[in-house]
From TrEMBL:
It comes from Pachyramphus minor. Belongs to the protein kinase superfamily. Alpha-type protein kinase family. ALPK subfamily. Gene3D superfamilies: MHCK/EF2 kinase. Protein kinase that recognizes phosphorylation sites in which the surrounding peptides have an alpha-helical conformation. Regulates cardiac development and cardiomyocyte differentiation by negatively regulating Wnt/beta-catenin signaling. Its EC number is 2.7.11.1. This is Alpha-protein kinase 2. GO terms for molecular function: ATP binding; protein serine/threonine kinase activity. Pfam families: Alpha_kinase (PF02816).
Length: 198
């Protein structure tokens, strides 16, 4: 039941992705997650089974569940790049709360996918993969031309405000008298306590 729930949920995201991508000139064919069905077989010793379309051809893993392995077919093939873009698109659309992963199949037809959500789930839905896969994806994902065509934001950029605050802080720390003038007394006492231990 969970396998059907996960794959068919991922399929719905893939349909939304396709609708957006197909409007773009030059994007081309979009990966499709095939449906999976649960059937009841009361006469069998294992009364439930899943059924899906048979995929004929070279079966390729475009991404792995934990994101630790870089698959050259993912990076170099059109299907692989579009799968990575699909992951990025879902990540951005769900504000980093959900990631479709373990993308694999034949050409643009995918099956047996996984979904990672944050520990609390996303909109009442919990995936079947560890939420650590989301962080690993964010750290390892490399945008490609299809990410750019969809206008997806790079996952590697630092916000300008954060960069500015960091550089200001390092300048202030080099001049301790400046720090003491700018920092309230209570904060200074705490900082002095910390620095005396180092």
């Amino acid at each position: 039941t969970q396998e059907c729930c996960v794959q068919n949920a991922a399929r719905e995201y893939a349909k939304l992705y396709a609708a957006e991508a197909e409007m773009l000139e030059g994007f081309g064919e979009v990966p499709e997650i095939i449906p999976i069905f649960l059937i009841h077989r009361p006469a069998n010793s294992i009364p439930y089974a899943t059924v899906e379309e048979e995929l004929v051809g070279e079966f390729v893993k475009y991404s792995v569940r934990d994101g630790k392995e870089v698959n050259f077919l993912r990076r170099d093939s059109e299907a692989g790049q579009k799968c990575c873009t699909f992951q990025h698109w879902v990540y951005e659309k769900t504000s980093g709360n959900l990631l479709v992963t373990d993308l694999q199949g034949v050409g643009m037809k995918l099956t047996d996918v996984g979904i990672a959500t944050l520990a609390k789930g996303y909109k009442g839905f919990k995936g079947n993969c560890s939420f650590s896969f989301i962080e690993q994806f964010r750290a390892l994902h490399q945008c490609n031309e299809y990410c750019e065509m969809l206008g997806l934001k790079s996952l590697r950029t630092t916000h300008p405000k954060q960069r500015k605050a960091t550089s200001t802080k390092s300048k202030n720390l080099s001049n301790s008298s400046t720090v003491k003038k700018m920092v309230p007394k209570k904060a200074r006492e705490h900082r002095d306590f910390i620095s005396s231990e180092h």
